[in-house]
C-alpha cells in the first residue's frame, strides 16, 4: 500500500493542465478551491497528527473541457515562523511545540503565567469560506486567513475575536439564501460563562458604511446557547441549517478547559484535552431563526460523536437532520501519523463505524403529548421522538447507511428534501469469526437495497456483545466515491452505486 499521508507535498505554483479522462461538458466552468494538510515535517521536526500539517491550498480551474491545477502553501504566521526557525515552533492539534527548544520547566512556568492558553495557530488547513466577495482559509481556532483565489496568495490574518467573542469556531459555516455566512463558535469562560455562539457575517456591507469595509466588521451574534458545563464545553466540527432552523448537537465529546489551561506547562497536546464521556447524553438544540431562540423542548439522544452534518430539512411539522455518527472518539487516534504507515491496516482500529443516521424532531405540540408516545408520524422515516416527562424528548434515529464519511451534497439543496449524498465509503472488514455473518448481515441489506434498520436492534447502538465484537474486528478502509441515492425517497429497491476513485 502506498502511504502518502506524512510526505511533504511540493507546491505547483504555475497552473498545469491536468490529464482529463473522459469528457468534461463545456458548460461546466469555474474554479474548485480545496484545502488540506500538505507538510508534516519541518527541518528535523515532525508533526504527530495528520490534522496538524501545514495548509496547502489547491485550485482546479475548469474551462472549455480542460482543467488547470495549481497549489500553494498558506503563508500563515505559523508557516513563516516554522520555516524561519527550520523546525516546528507553533502548537497544532496533536503537537505541542515551544518557541525555545532549551526551555526548562521554570521558563515554561514563566511562559505559562504570562499566557494561560498560548495564542492558537493560524494554520488554516481545513476549509475555504466565502465571505461577501472574499475568500478565507479556515481552521477551528479564532483565526482565519484571507486568500486570493486566483493566485492562492495569502492575505490578511483575521481574528474572529475582534468581531465576536469566540475562542474557537467551526470551519464548516453555512450560507443563507442571501449569501450571508452563519457560523458557530464557543466562548470559553467569558464573564463567568461558557456558551456556544451562532454568528452572522453579512454578504454585503450597507451602502452608507461601505468604504473599504469588510463584511466581518458587521458580524452580529445571532443567538447564543449556554454550555451545560462551564469548564467542559462540547467539541463540534459542523452544525445543521435549514431556512428556519439551526441544529446544534451538544455532544459528550468535550474540551477540558482546565487541561487546556495547563497543557502548555505539562507539555501535552490539545488533542489530549478532548475526551468522550460515554455516560453522558447528546443534547439536540434547535434554534428557530425567526425568533433567534432555542426551542424550549429538551431533545436528546444517546452518546455519540459527530463530525459531519450532511443535510437537514423540514417535513410536515418535523425537522429531519442527517449526520455521520460514531459511538466513540476513536477516529482521532486513527490519524496519528505513526499509525498511517505501511502497517496502516493493522493499526487502523476504529472501535465504531461511521454511520449515516437520520434524526427527526417534532416542531410543535410536544408539551401536551402523552408520555411514551412517538411524536413522529411521518411515513418517510423510521426515526422516532419519544415523549418523556419534564418536557424531555428522546430521539431515536433511523440508520440510513453504515460506513460512510466526508459527505458532500449539492449545496443548492441544503435545507431541502434531497436525494444524493457524495461521500467516501469506509468498509468494515472484521476478522473472520463465528459472528462474521452478523457483521456481513449489516451490509448485505444495503447492497440489496433494503432498509438496513430491518436487521438491527430497535436501538441502533450495537449490544454490549456486538460492541466487543466490533473492538475485536479489524477495519480495512477502501476509499471510494460513493453516491447514495435513496435517502429522501426510500423505495423498496433503492439504488446505491459506487464508483472507485482512480
Ligand atoms: C489547534 C486547536 C484545535 C484544533 C482543532 C483542529 C485542527 C481540528 C481538526 C478537525 C478535523 C480536520 C476533523 C476532520 C474530520 C474528518 C473525518 C471525520 C474523517 C473520517 C474519515 C474516515 C473514517 C475514513 C478514512 C479512510 C481512510 C484513511 C482510508 O485510507 C482545537 C479547536 C481542538 C482546540 C484549540 C487548538
From TrEMBL:
GO molecular function terms attached to this record: metal ion binding; oxidoreductase activity, acting on single donors with incorporation of molecular oxygen, incorporation of two atoms of oxygen
Gene designation per UniProt: BCO1
Protein name: Beta-carotene oxygenase 1
Ligand binding (Fe cation): 172, 237, 308
Cofactor(s) in the UniProt record: Fe(2+)
Signal peptide residues on this chain, from the entry's feature table: none
Protein source organism: Equus caballus
Keyword set, alphabetical order: Iron, Metal-binding
InterPro entries: Carotenoid_Oase
Cofactor note: Binds 1 Fe(2+) ion per subunit.
Record family assignment: Belongs to the carotenoid oxygenase family.
Keyword NADP set for record: no
Pfam families linked: RPE65
Amino acid at each position: 500500500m502506498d502511504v502518502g499521508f506524512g510526505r511533504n507535498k511540493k507546491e505547483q505554483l504555475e497552473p498545469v493542465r491536468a490529464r482529463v479522462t473522459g469528457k468534461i461538458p463545456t458548460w461546466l466552468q469555474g474554479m474548485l478551491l480545496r484545502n488540506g494538510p500538505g507538510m508534516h515535517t519541518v527541518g528535523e521536526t515532525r508533526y504527530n497528527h495528520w490534522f496538524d500539517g501545514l495548509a496547502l491550498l489547491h485550485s482546479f480551474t475548469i474551462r472549455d473541457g480542460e482543467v488547470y491545477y495549481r497549489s500553494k502553501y498558506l503563508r500563515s504566521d505559523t508557516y513563516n515562523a516554522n520555516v524561519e526557525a527550520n523546525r516546528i515552533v507553533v502548537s497544532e492539534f496533536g503537537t505541542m511545540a515551544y518557541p525555545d527548544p532549551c526551555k526548562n520547566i521554570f521558563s515554561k512556568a514563566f511562559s505559562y503565567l504570562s499566557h494561560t492558553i498560548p495564542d492558537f495557530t493560524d494554520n488554516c488547513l481545513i476549509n475555504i469560506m466565502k465571505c461577501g466577495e472574499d475568500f478565507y482559509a479556515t481552521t477551528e481556532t479564532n483565526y482565519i486567513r484571507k486568500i486570493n483565489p486566483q493566485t492562492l496568495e495569502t492575505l490578511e490574518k483575521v481574528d474572529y475575536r475582534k468581531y465576536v467573542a469566540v475562542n474557537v469556531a467551526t470551519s464548516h459555516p453555512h450560507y443563507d439564501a442571501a449569501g450571508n455566512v452563519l457560523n458557530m463558535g464557543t466562548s470559553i469562560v467569558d464573564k463567568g460563562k461558557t456558551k456556544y455562539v451562532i454568528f452572522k457575517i453579512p454578504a454585503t456591507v450597507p451602502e452608507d458604511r461601505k468604504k473599504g469595509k469588510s463584511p466581518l466588521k458587521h458580524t452580529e451574534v445571532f443567538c447564543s446557547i449556554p454550555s451545560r458545563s462551564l469548564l467542559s464545553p462540547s467539541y463540534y466540527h459542523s452544525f445543521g441549517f435549514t431556512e428556519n432552523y439551526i441544529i446544534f448537537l451538544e455532544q459528550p465529546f468535550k474540551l477540558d478547559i482546565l487541561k487546556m489551561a495547563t497543557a502548555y506547562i505539562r507539555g501535552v497536546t490539545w488533542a489530549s484535552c478532548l475526551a468522550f464521556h460515554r455516560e453522558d447524553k447528546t443534547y439536540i438544540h434547535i434554534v428557530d431563526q425567526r425568533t433567534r431562540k432555542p426551542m424550549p423542548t429538551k431533545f436528546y439522544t444517546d452518546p455519540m460523536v459527530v463530525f459531519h452534518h450532511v443535510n437537514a430539512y423540514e417535513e410536515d411539522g418535523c425537522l429531519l437532520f442527517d449526520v455521520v455518527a460514531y459511538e466513540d472518539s476513536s477516529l482521532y487516534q486513527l490519524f496519528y501519523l505513526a499509525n498511517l504507515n505501511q502497517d496502516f491496516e493493522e493499526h487502523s482500529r476504529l472501535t465504531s463505524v461511521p454511520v449515516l443516521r437520520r434524526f427527526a424532531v417534532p416542531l410543535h405540540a410536544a408539551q401536551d403529548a402523552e408520555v411514551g408516545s412517538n411524536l413522529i408520524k411521518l411515513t418517510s422515516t423510521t426515526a422516532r421522538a419519544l415523549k418523556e416527562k419534564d418536557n424531555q424528548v428522546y430521539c431515536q434515529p433511523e440508520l440510513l447507511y453504515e460506513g460512510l464519511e466526508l459527505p458532500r451534497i449539492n449545496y443548492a439543496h441544503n435545507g431541502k428534501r434531497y436525494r444524493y449524498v457524495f461521500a467516501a465509503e469506509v468498509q468494515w472488514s472484521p476478522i473472520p469469526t463465528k459472528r462474521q455473518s452478523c457483521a456481513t448481515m449489516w451490509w448485505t441489506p444495503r447492497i440489496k437495497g433494503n432498509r438496513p434498520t430491518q436487521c438491527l436492534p430497535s436501538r441502533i447502538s450495537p449490544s454490549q456483545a456486538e460492541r466487543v465484537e466490533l473492538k475485536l474486528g479489524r477495519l480495512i478502509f477502501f476509499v471510494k466515491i460513493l453516491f447514495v441515492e435513496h435517502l429522501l425517497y426510500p423505495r423498496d429497491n433503492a439504488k446505491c452505486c459506487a464508483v472507485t476513485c482512480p
